[in-house]
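ENCODED BACKBONE
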Amino acid sequence: MPDDKKRKVQLEYPCLWIYKIIGPDADEMRRAVAEIIRDRDYKITHSRSSETAKYHCLNVELSVESESHRTTLHEALKAHQTIKHVL
């Protein structure tokens, strides 16, 4: 693998970050985000739904303080039973 493919993107923290979350119930996913993020400011927007509306994709935008904060939130979102995928 070329060296440029191995390099990790360097982010300057704090920064805005968007998680894409996917699951079957948009309202339940919104409640899950509120539970996980609690009193921090965030914005949720609908991204899209599957053709049959079986799955929904939401964008969750918020400021993250560090890489560990970003990955901790990612893991918490991924672990919630309502959320099937986190990108």
